[in-house]
Amino acid sequence: MTVINSTEHYLFEHAKCSVCRGELKPPFVSLDGAELAIVRICTVCCKKLKNGLSVDMVQVSAISEMHDLGYHGMTLVRQSRKQVEADERKRKEFIFNPEL
Ligand SMILES: [Zn+2]
Question: What CA–CA distance (Å, rounded) separates 7 from 20?
Answer without folding.
Answer: 20
